[in-house]
Amino acid sequence: MKQELENILLKDNVDKQRFELQVDKETAYIEYKRKGDRIFLIHTEIPAALKGTAAGPALVEKAFLNIEENKQKLIPYCPFVRAYLKRHPQWDRITVEESA
């Protein structure tokens, strides 16, 4: 994670059901749904002004840390999140397969 992004706090916006990262007056976010101890990451939105700044990967990593700290299990629906998981298999420790 880029050093300038490390100290930016992740906001868990429960009302909007999304994790938010405020960078340079722009907000990147991941929408989620919670069900018990599982959290479904559904959609990631990175403003055009933040593309190429590593805000997207920082947002995902901070969301994963939040999920792990809260002892939740991740079910990744979002393609951006799934791609991040492929590049960072150490986070498989918080993922589970969706069960019926």
On the 0 to 100 scale, the average pLDDT is 93
User: Main sheet, how many strands, which sense, barrel?
Assistant: 5 strands, mixed
Number of helices: 3
Strands of the widest sheet, in order across it, are 1-2-3-4-5
What form results from the Cα inertia axes?
Answer: globular
- Structural class of the secondary elements? alpha+beta
What's the β-strand tally? 5
Elements, N to C (H/E): HEEEEHEH
Taking all Cα atoms into account, the compactness measure Rg is 13 Å
Distance between the termini: 35 Å
Helix share of residues? 25-40%
Residue fraction in strands: 25-35%
Describe the 3D structure.
28% of the residues lie in helices and 31% in strands. The chain is of the alpha+beta class and 100 residues long. A five-stranded mixed sheet has the order 1-2-3-4-5. The termini are far apart.
In short:
Helices cover 28% and strands 31% of the residues. It has 3 helices and 5 strands, in the order αββββαβα. It has helices at residues 3-6, 55-69, 79-87, and strands at residues 11-13, 18-23, 26-35, 38-45, 73-76.
Give keywords.
globular, alpha+beta, 28% helix, 5-stranded mixed beta sheet, 31% strand, single chain, 5 strands, 100 residues
